[in-house]
Description:
Elements: H1 18-47, H2 68-97, E1 105-112, E2 115-120, E3 130-133, E4 135-139, E5 144-150, E6 155-158, E7 166-168, E8 174-178, E9 184-190, E10 202-208, H3 210-221, H4 230-242, E11 270-271, E12 276-277, H5 280-293, H6 306-317
Parallel strand pairs: 1-5, 4-10
Antiparallel strand pairs: 1-2, 2-3, 5-8, 6-7, 6-9, 9-10, 11-12
Bound molecules: heme C.
Amino acid sequence: MSAAPLQYLLHAAGPASAPAYRLGWALIALVMAVIVVIAALLLGGLMRRREPPPSGARAALPPDSGGLHWIVIGTGISTVALFGALVAAMVTLESVASPPREPGLTIDVTAYDWWWKIDYPDALDPSRSFVTANEIHIPVGVPVRVELRSADVIHTFWAPKLAGKTEMIPGQTNVQWIEADAPGIYRGQCSQFCGSQHAHMAFEVVAEPQARFDAWRDAQRRGAQAANAPGVRSGQRIFADRCAGCHAVRGTSAAGMQAPDLTHLASRRLIAAGQMTNTPEHRLDWIAHAQRIKPDSLMPSIALSASDAVALDAYLSTLQ
Ligand code: HEC
């Protein structure tokens, strides 16, 4: 699995994005060819010398050299090239509109200011559905249908190596599909300005071989393990007091719906929609200084005593 999940625009990593990249390069080649031809003609014109008129004589206009047919040729070539680009764009749009095979999986992504709720619904057995946040897992080589919604304003779902952009519009469901050719972490980002923390609204798509994906999904379906150790139990009580109004931890009484589900928080690579790696220090920093790290975020900065912070972190670390 690649260690550096760059949000790299110049490579495609799946069949929903590859046609658009090919089209992009073809259009760049076309534009470069136009620049080279125009520059060559311009240079040729500048360097062509004409005999200067005899001194005192008025410069005579050059005889009509039949320029009209050059205009016709130039316009004709441009028209054919632009029409070709139009056809190529239509063919590309059509080829990425729907996956080549039935999607093997459907997930729902709902955008919130400024994080992503990820639902894995199970139509046959709703008790196997689960919710997570900011980290999407998919099996490699399988088309995945992604239903896109917004809880507040217009956002845009964009994982550039896997697919083009699709808007997420309040009150509407848009559908995108993604597929990864190889295991790896593919970074994504909201690409529609959605408020002050728009730039800090990232997510990751983790593509894994089917067996690893299945193991991840089975683990996510389970509720949180029971908090048995005394330090952990007091952490859970603090969580119930200070955090459960917004955050849910399945398998406990914490059932807040307005914030990321934290049932398996410790299994995620990053927190706060891609802002920090998920270490105990960063988690406590985020809890104490959410408003400094993401000003205006709907997570308040929460002051905890040193002993409460230790207990809360012991509890959060059990949310594997
Ligand atoms: C008023 C609602 C609210 C309360 C109370 C609250 N949070 Fe949050 N929390 C949020 C929101 C909203 C986010 C998403 C913020 C963002 O990324 O923009 C969040 C994000 C987080 C994240 C990052 C999750 C992820 O997957 O990226 C952690 C960890 C977290 N909160 C822990 C806590 C803890 C621990 C407490 C209690 C001490 C707490 N929160 C209290 C609303 C709340």
